[in-house]
Amino acid sequence: MSGVLLDTNVISELTKRIPAPPVIAFLSVRDDLWLSALVLHELEFGLRLLPRGNRRDALRGVLSEFIRHYEDRILPVDEKAAVWAARFRAEARERGRSQDLGDALIAGTAKACDLSIATRNATDFGGLELVLTNPWEFR
Question: Is the full-model pTM beyond 0.85?
């Protein structure tokens, strides 16, 4: 498999009133985009923290449409991804860093599936054996 695994911040950008044009351009020219089930968890968690109302309903609509569009490109956190995530977290600890479990599982999924990661938060994945792309810098 090849392509790009989208981090949560890339998808969250789409919920803004005016998303960053480089992110929209990046997403529109790629046909090899993937989602991690963990990213869906993070998005759903964020929605559930919002108060009930029009804003929450509107965001749910945007995210539901996006997920529907990519429903056949949602990757589970499987055994191979979990092993890579454990390796990444252990290596980070050996270097004196803390690796967030969610970020490690996203990274593990990307590594297990031979995908790069599209994110604005390169430091979350720093020092890992991964190719990173920042869609906010897309030209």
Answer: yes
